[in-house]
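Title: Prediction job returns without error message
Component: structure pipeline
Severity: low
Priority: P3
Assignee: unassigned

Description:
Job completed but the reporter wants confirmation the result is attached to the right record. Sequence as submitted:
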Amino acid sequence: MESGTVERTGKRTRVVRQSLPANAFRPEPEGFERAGFGFLTESDVAFLKDRVEEILADYGVAILHPEAQKRFLAAGAKPGIDANRIRMPRELIREAMAATPKAVRLGGREARFDIDLPRGDRGFVMRTGTGAHGYVSPHDARYRNMDLDAVSEIAAVANTLDEVGFIAHPFVHGVPEKTADIHSFGRLVGRTNKHVWMQPYQWENVEYLMKIAAIAAGGEDRLRANPITSCITCSFTPLEFKYMDTHCIIEAGRYGVPLHACSLPSSGGTAPLSVPSMAIMAAAEIVGMTVMAHILSPGTPVIATPLMFTLDMRTGSALQSCVESLQAASMSIQLMRQGWGVLTHTYGAGSDTPDVDHQSMAERALIAQVVALAGADILGGVGQLECATVFSPVQAVLDNEIGAMMRRFIRKPQIDRTALNWDEMMHIRAGGHFLDSPHTIAACRDQLMPRVFRRQGRDDYEKSGRRTAFDEARDAALAAIAAAPEEGTLSEEQNREIAALAAHADIHIVAAYAGAVSVI
């Protein structure tokens, strides 16, 4: 993965080799394996998998969607102990998990941003934090409510981050609350050529969002052929599925959009205060949604997305980066991958502190390592703070650096005589060195070089005015924002169509919640 350029000097001509490290869109060179670590043994995985099937088959889940209930019963499911509960036979579970695609294309609006999972090098991609209500401006470090201008800045920065494969839209203020997702998604999809993660807030909004995606893709047929968006569907822990999220599954199948089946258990709250129980709860809900997709939208790719939280027993606050949440994330990824062979997605960044501080860097470095070693295909949470409620572009730039380091960290070094430079080791003279070794010269540019992290001595540090990685990241974020085209990435006609849909939604959705319902 290197390109050669010729540098001419007064003495001789030499070839300068430039390393092109792997990133979200460029694979590792062939011949490397991915290192891994997990808390679960094979027997542990089998035991937990049995418990998941036991919950779904013997107790079941509540499905608050009448049509979905009918289709479940027609497929062989059994009524549960209460009106909305459905029990899934083990045979149906196994059929669905076997039939669900194990590969997915997350398309970009430009081919260079297409993502195929699983990656050929068994690596990961990252995505930005989602759902944030707050924004820490890179201009002055002040906190404010998330707004559409902030969405544009998030897109501008994320477009320059080569570890970020796709971008999620946040929750925005300054627009009607019921249609905040439509406005945020519409702004984001018009400011990036990368894949965008869709997150509906009301069931009535889903079709609007899908139509916006189709406009940005160039039509519904093009969206199906190369889905530039993927859609979240969530459980309502414990073991319940709302009408809206079931509707998301149906519409995703209709438009050919991949699904992220997301479970968000809180240990001690909506799940038992036990790390393995958290993994069971998340897996049961994800498997339940996968079975639902198999019945309602067969052939739709489903990405298992356990997002794990632990309640602080002193305050009641949800935590994403405490030790218990990290263990649960690792276990749930391992269980879904080894138990059912599905694609996986969880937080690979984020912290429980409200600012870009020392605690934040420590927590997100640890979660990235734990989740990457567990084998996750997607590491989410880039730029997010305060348990996924705040977004910082400066933190996003720093997370991109951590992602590059983590990608290289899990690349298992080659072990053979050539890689060891064994012959020279066996003949090194007393007082000798390897600086001019052909092996050193061939490999020296393969070292991962930081972009914003600093490697300087005290004198240079003082001369720079004590600039830190934070300063470098802030400058990078501001430069990205300044360079972003004001008009975005869509045509004028596409922008007009999206604006018209958003305006129609503002009337229709508000009217729907006032009791007057119309159709698009």
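Comment from assignee: result matches the submitted record. The mean pLDDT is 95.
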